[in-house]
Write a structure and sequence with these properties.
356 residues; 13 helices
Length: 356
């Protein structure tokens, strides 16, 4: 019987007196596409950091393809064939797309630090780099700086870097976060393609992506796995419905806040405490209990567009633009009254955001 790709045994992680990961045990077979879901703050990214070596566990064990990797450094784990992406895109923005992929390819082909190799003369490196660029659909962007790529292209590049090192086990942390619907469809197709013949473990909040890709799903809530099963069974699990999503949970509990005219107010707190939900309640995206007043008028219970027409603007966590329209057409859609001169014109926008 072959060893599992990843095996976690009673894994625990404390930050001071607070236990974030509380006795997680999980086995992921070789070749499985496995999704980790759960509310913000459940410990999903912390679990990834433990598996990939960015954090050392307080207790418990981690095995990769049968070998104990508990407490090993990230580069040691990477060289065993496990690679990961991050929530925040992690590329070399000033290097070209080609150079980003080539950096990952060099080590996998056995090239170490050397002053005696002419890097441009390495035919096997060129061939492998070209192959990866074709696989992630960035071959025609090879010569441009990575920092100039669109957000979705940067995420594709990061996936390319992940597989370019020869990884057999891939960990993807929210690979489609912030993408439009069309970009998400392209990303799902890419992930399905690059994970063929490999083991995939991913954190994802888009349930359409999860149910489309995953062979099995684990549900993490407050640092513990409450369910692990096939997608159809997870979808029907009452405990998952109650705890992993809003369900019957009370996310906001008695929030009282006054924001004065002209103030800049920041809402701080760890993941999962309700910061985004607070903004969504103000904007009418989720129905609140209690009262919300804007410029002296009650707005609780109004539709989002009615609140927007009263002068409240909202920038969501996920991008909400029309990717097939021009920048100017997107801006035009934000004009509420074409017959009235706005306080903020296109010229003002372009001065503040010169890249537009």
């Amino acid at each position: 019987m072959s060893a599992a790709a990843i095996e976690l045994t009673d894994l625990r992680k404390n930050f001071g007196p607070t236990e974030i990961i509380r006795g997680v045990s999980l086995t992921i077979p070789l070749g499985e596409r496995h999704a980790m879901i759960g509310p913000n703050g459940a410990g999903k990214s912390t679990l990834f950091n433990l598996i990939s070596g960015r954090l050392a566990p307080t207790a418990g064990g981690i095995r990769c393809k049968g070998e104990d990797i508990t407490g090993q450094k990230p580069y040691e784990i990477n060289r065993r064939g496990l690679s990961r992406s991050f929530q925040v895109t992690n590329i070399f923005p000033r290097l070209s797309v080609w150079e980003n992929i080539r950096c990952a390819v060099l080590w996998s082909l056995g090239y170490r630090y050397s002053f005696w190799h002419g890097i441009n003369s390495l035919a096997d490196v060129r061939q492998r780099t070209e192959q990866i660029l074709e696989e992630i659909h960035l071959a025609d962007r090879r010569r441009i700086q990575a920092g100039v790529l669109t957000y979705a292209e940067q995420r594709a590049l990061e996936i390319g870097i992940t597989i370019a090192g020869g990884a057999e086990i891939i960990l993807l942390d929210e690979p489609t976060a912030g993408m439009s619907h069309a970009e998400t469809e392209d990303a799902v197709a890419l992930i399905r393609k690059v994970s063929a013949g490999r083991t995939l473990m991913m954190i994802e909040h888009d349930m359409g992506v999860v149910f489309d890709l995953a062979d099995r799903i684990s549900v993490l809530v407050y640092g513990q796995i409450i369910a692990c099963d096939a997608p159809s069974k997870i979808k029907a699990d009452p405990a998952v419905q109650q705890h992993a999503y809003y369900g019957k949970s009370h996310i906001l509990q008695g929030v009282h806040l006054v924001v004065g005219a002209g103030e800049i107010v920041s809402i701080l707190g760890r993941n999962g405490v309700g910061r985004s939900t607070t903004l969504k309640a103000i904007m009418g995206d989720v129905p609140p209990h209690g009262s919300i007043t804007f410029k002296g008028e009650p707005i609780a219970g109004l539709k989002s567009y009615e609140i927007a027409h009263r002068g409240l603007g909202y920038v969501p966590e996920d991008r909400a633009v029309f990717p097939t329209l021009t920048v100017e057409h997107n801006l035009l859609l934000g004009v509420k009254n074409a017959n009235k001169t706005p306080r903020w014109g296109f010229g003002d926008t372009y001065r503040v955001f010169p890249r537009l």
